[in-house]
Specification:
With 432 residues, the chain is α/β, with parallel strands linked by helices. The protein contains eight helices and 40 strands.
Amino acid sequence: MKAVVLAAGEGTRMWPLAVNKPKHLLSVGTQPLIGHIMQALKECSVNEVFTVVGYRKDQIQSAIGNGDRYGLRVQYLDQPQRTGTASALKVASEALGEEPFLAVYGDLWLNSNAIGEVLEKAKTCPRVMGVVEVMDPTDYGVIQLEGDRIVRIREKPKGSRGAKGWVNTGIYVLDAEVFRAIGNTRLSKRAEYEVTSSLQQLLDQGLEVRAAMIYKEDWMDVGRPWDLLEANERSLAHLPSRVKGTVEQGAVIRGPVYVEEESVIRPGCLIEGPAYIGKGCVVGPNSRIRPSTSLQDRVMVGTSCEVKNSIIMSGSRIPHMSYVGDSILGEGCNLGAGTITANIRFDEQPVQMRVKGRLVNTGRKKLGAIIGDSVQTGINVSLLPGVRVGSGSWIGPGTVVSRDIQSGQSVLMKQTLTTKPMKKRGTAPKDD
């Protein structure tokens, strides 16, 4: 069976992490999101993949190539106007032909179990949607079921917050009937052509669409920055222990830790797994890497630093005496000595974050900072829980960052110095 992966979108909710790269290339665990999808496809014996690309398509093509590293044959289809999932799928109609095919959204975290459930159900029906049960379906396509038959699809309905329900996972097996429905699909209220609207047309025509129930542990939607932390935790949960680099005498490794080639763990370090250390990294001396941390290639964590449950992207540096907890650093960042990411509120309530101008409850008791590419901080900078710092910004020494900082900003603390003569208490010390 052929597969199509929809990876043309920009990912504005992921700001500032998806400014310089597609959201599908954001790293979790040991590889980008779309890499996990490619790996799962191969494990399910799907060998031919068409990837629909658009935003910064050259980066996806460079990262995945022709699919050799995954044992796949990957071809690329361009979606010049990104107007929704239905129009993305339409781009692949000629390549996919009349036979049933697998379709997967490219911004998911999943494993082969999730795809396998959909493929298994497709043995009895040519149109299948993967569904999962969640506590709050407000932000998803909500599915009404009768047994395993789908009877109605509602995209992001109002009034469902807090109610348990089945939602669309973005994993399908479909046939050519969907392309005929796409031709008649109208713009949604969100000004997009959505494949769920096309499937509702088929249901209205009396055509059958079956549901494949997927376990929550095998799938998650990665649409907001903090979702990356959970996806990273899931990816590292089954990480094998392997040391290809150098662990110097006096460093301690506990639990499953994967250290790539050319990386060095210096004396006095404690690495607690599961943790991933990419190629060419330097950790220590006397630093601590705590569980569920992923250091991508060429990261430096210097003297007396602590990094916990975080993603540090390629080329970033945390040189000395800093704490990074439950946070994400983009590529090429440089944190000054004593930089602290606060990750818990005083009242211990879930951290809130602004997404597209709206304050959102992240549901996480611990969440630090989300920092874009090429951000620099001076010494003793403190970032409060849930703040985001846009790419290319500079945060001056001693600054407490309590709100989001847009890209390309210089933030300085205004300080007033007061000097006056000291009362005479004896002879003042002489300057050397």
